[in-house]
Amino acid sequence: MWKNYWLMAVRNLLKRKLYTTINITGLAAGIACFILLALYLENEWTYDKWHTNISELYRLRMDYGEKGEPVTHTALTPSALSAAIKDFPEVKQVVRVYGVNATVKYGEKVMNEDKFVYADAPFFQMFSFPLLSGNAAAVLNGPGMVVLSRRTAEKYFGQEDPVGKTITINGRTSLQVTGVAENPPSNTHLKFDFIASYSTLQYKDRWGSANYYTYVRLNKADMAGSLHSRLSSMAMAQLPEEARNSGLTYDFTPEPVSGLHLDSIAQDQPEESGDKRYNYIFSLVAVMLLIIACVNFMNLATARAAERGREVGVRKTLGAERGQLFWQFIAESALITFIAVVLGMLLAALLLPAFNNLADKQLQFGGIAGYRIYLLLAAAFFITSFLTGTYPALFLSGFRPVQVLKGKVNGPKGDNLRRSLVVFQFAASAFFIICTLAVGRQLHYIQHKKLGQERDHLLVLEGWKEDVNKLQAFKNKLMQQAGIVNVTASPNSPMSIEGGYTLGNIEGKQPTYEMSVTALPVEKDYIKTMGINLMSGEDLTDADIQDVLKADSLKVYHFFLNETAVRLLGWTPETATGKRLQMNGRVGSVKGVMKDFHFASMKSKIKPLVIFPEYDWFNQVIVKTSGNNDREMIAGIEKVWNEYLPQTPFSFRFMDQDFNRLYKTEYRVAAILNTFSIVVMLVSCLGLLGLAALTTQQRTKEIGIRKVMGASVASVVMLLSRDFIKLVVIALILAAPLSWYIISHWLEGFAYHTTLNAGVFLGAAVLAVSVALVTVSLQTVKAALTNPVISLKSE
Amino acid sequence: MIELRKISKHYPVGFGRNEILKDVDLTIQEGEFVSIMGPSGSGKSTLLHIMGLLEEPSGGEYLFQGERVDRMNEKKRTQLHRGAIGFVFQAYHLIDELTVYENIETPLLYKNVSSSERKSRVADVLDRFNMVAKKDLFPSQLSGGQQQLVGIARAIVAEPRVILADEPTGNLHSDQAKVIMELFRTLNEQDKITIVQVTHSDLNATYGNRIIQIRDGHIQG
Ligand SMILES: Nc1ncnc2c1ncn2[C@@H]1O[C@H](COP(=O)(O)OP(=O)(O)OP(=O)(O)O)[C@@H](O)[C@H]1O
Ligand SMILES: [Mg+2]
Question: How far apart are CA A673 and CA A303, in angstroms?
């Protein structure tokens, strides 16, 4: 019996090529996308959950804010936090992690490394990164030790055994390699290439600056609550009496490491974190794609009921039971699904590199939890065969032979269901199109919004490590080059200023009044180079710089506050200048007030910012050019660089890249959404194509008669297309409110955003209708052009 | 074999109903060869469908081999389709995706006949109908007459007690029709299969040993 079923199935597939192609292509595309998204989501949802002690691992978040101001949550904590909590009864181990950029040298090899971290000794005991050589308890157990990732070890040492060898950091510090760790997997937020012992730094523990991640291993998994209350009281105890009473927020909160990637609300994460909402959307896309492909199948199968119904009737008169017919149809859809799954897998494997590129991941088949993907695939296969098979099977096997033999098959019921399914498909397509357009609009808005500071024609030279005198000479030399307008320096990117500082001893305020600000130490020409507008005060002079180069006790600082900071202090730009204040021990006064500009993602409102000259440490040199960043100029800069910093490899980036990095997630999501919206649309269109083909085929005779009676080609095309277009319009009407709701919600995640307008919906409507029209026309125009005599004769 | 008692059939039409069969009494004995004749729309096909358990009468009693059909469950009816009743259609209704051989084999599959027996039975029938050479062809590769031969072969392969044929030669040339009618006669006389056919042809009707005239849902005379 089953042989007969398979035989029928295979012959049916071969006979109806268009139908088979549409079904298999649609399903295969659906399944391929499903696999890719499943891999992506698996990676997202397993982030850091694979550490053995994961239930006991927490990272401390710092929360601070003025009374009445929004609280800032940051993952960066002061270095002194670790010592303060290590004897808490809840705490088993504490590890600080401090990430830097470093120039690493071994033998002839010198490279800039950005995955370089310092960590306290128990790092490898706390986390489960496997060590290929070295002992977890010992590898970081003293100053001057470093563990390399496998790929880094291979990069620097090739076949040599790196353990025991010495590498040099920034031309100064020597580190001995004590171990090699397996490359961190793609599903961890701590992606290191070098882990050096924290004690190497010989930093004094301080509360004043927050640049360190503090990880805690609890004695018991359920102690996070009591740890939090202990942390809160400790934080409060740190504040002076008045500050405590002023309603200031200052707290440390444990966040589970298992949720850092998706749930943490902290800024300044070591790796750009994921976003649950996007994951939900992608899950929706994955499931939708499968369903839409299944819907095609169901629609086409039932639309062909007239054809298959006759067979059902005949078989029933030959003694077939309904159950037997049911399984026959299931076999057919299982065969199609199976072919589609195999093709889909091949397609997914083929597209994986492109998808990785798109999603910025290193996904692969297999991996830590790889088997799950196959389970999922098997489940998808059974669910798909079942979904696609059952409905047509029930529908078809239910025919009464008499109805069939009398030629009456298509009840209005099947038609309505089919229409609803087409509406559903196109509603889903329209939904994704609207979302894609709206996201694109917001990204366009961000790209074109005036920042208030420059970001074009700016080059960032990475890895400056020399002292001030050398910087001045370097600057002067660069300025001699044609096309270079300005040169300045700062420790980190102007596009995302992050350093947390505190203002105090402010003139005209209570001595105990404090205000948290973001601040950036800069070189003299920073304001000029970055094109920052001053509302009051003057730009820095050489004399101002001399003030901060004096001996510690004599130093005088010159602060530039932004509008927001001035407003929060209750000043105006005019009254602010000259006011005395201190910032983390730096004594000085307000030199000027800057017009607000975006120095962080537009997702949050502009915060109080202080910019001040300080020549302790710069990490990057910023070069403003006249606009032609051509190779020659860059080669010229490189030449000067090599002259001044022969130890450090020349590497640069454009300021634009820094800016775009702020919206990396959004760009990535937009790219994924774009791609899959197109697939959703295409698969829906495939279904529409099939339906249009069947309908026109069934109406060939009618078309012939109409044409004999004098109908024009255009009117016939209209007649045939009208029904489909109506469905697409209904779909759009259904999709609009839902997408409007979701998009408005998403936009609210940006402090600065566009508003939704009718244009987005209109654009989606025009797109959907025209795509549907073209699809349907492929069939209808052909039918309308057919010579009526031929179609009537063949009846 | 077949006993109809006051069988009626009507369809609802608007607010009233359309009576198609009215109090039909008809008995067909085992081994008969009956031809049903009547004008178009008189209810011949409907009557045949009722006999073949494809349609339920609106009223009256139907006994098949002495058993009340309205008391049979779905299973029993399927059983009868598998074993006792064979159908031949005017439009042949072969399954296009199956070869001649496979078409004939299908009823045996549903009857759960063993593979070896299927082979020998299909081979027998093919032999008897002189179609061995055509066994691997698909229906579309056969002439109308040949297709109807396959249709009959398929109807008899499961050795039914009765063959119900609705205008089996309606689409055929008179020469082909003659072949089919001869075949029916042989099946009836040699194999003792009861045959009920609907026909518009007086000539074809003479092959049978009884003619039933139906008009406006009534059996005449
Ligand atoms: N499902 C139905 N609903 C309403 N009326 C029906 C239905 N099926 C058949 N009829 C009517 O029943 C009548 C008898 O139909 P039937 O097919 O039995 O006629 P027939 O004698 O076989 O005619 P022909 O020689 O043209 O095949 C017809 O008038 C037809 O319109
Ligand atoms: Mg009839």
Answer: 31
Give residue limits of the domains in chain B: 32-42+73-219
Report the distance separating Cα A582 and Cα A501, nearest Å. 10
For residue B95, the chain A residues in CB contact (below 8 A) are 8, 311, 314-315
DSSP string, A87-142: TSTTEEEEEEEEEEEEEEEETTEEEEEEEEEEE-TTHHHHS-PPEEES-TTTTTSS
For tokens 């915060």, the residue is A607
Return the number of CB contacts < 8 Å for A and B. Answer: 63
Q: Within 10 Å of residue B101's Cβ, how many Cβ atoms?
A: 19
User: Does the domain at residues B32-42+73-219 carry the CATH identifier 3.20.20.10?
Assistant: no
Asked whether A57 and A63 are in contact (CB, 8 A), the reply is no
Q: Specify the pairing of strand B59-64 against strand B67-68.
A: antiparallel
**Residues β-bridged to residue A592:** A537, A560
Token reading at B115: 């593979």
Q: How far apart are the C-alpha atoms of A314 and A331, rounded to whole Å?
A: 19
Q: Is the CB of B42 under 6 A from ligand 1?
A: yes
Distance CA A298, CA A286 (A): 19
The residues that bridge with A484 in the sheet, in sequence order, are A625
B106 and A313: CB-CB below 8 Å?
no
Strand order in the sheet with B210-215: B85-88, B162-166, B194-198, B33-37, B210-215, B218-220
Cβ atoms A688, A774 nearer than 8 A: no
Give the N- to C-terminal CA distance of chain A in Å, as an integer.
Answer: 34
Mean pLDDT by 10 residues, chain A (795 residues): 80 84 89 88 90 95 79 89 94 94 89 93 95 93 95 93 93 93 92 95 85 94 93 88 78 94 88 85 86 83 75 86 86 87 90 90 69 77 80 79 61 70 88 90 90 89 80 90 90 84 88 86 93 93 89 90 94 93 91 94 90 87 83 88 85 88 86 88 87 80 77 81 87 92 89 88 89 85 73 49
What are the extents of the domains in chain A? 1-47+276-410, 54-259, 458-661
- Tell whether ligand 1 has an atom less than 6 A from the beta carbon of residue B45: yes
Residue A623, helix vs strand vs coil: strand
CB of B114 within 6 A of ligand 1: the answer is no
Residue A338: CB partners within 8 Å, gap ≥ 6? A381, A385
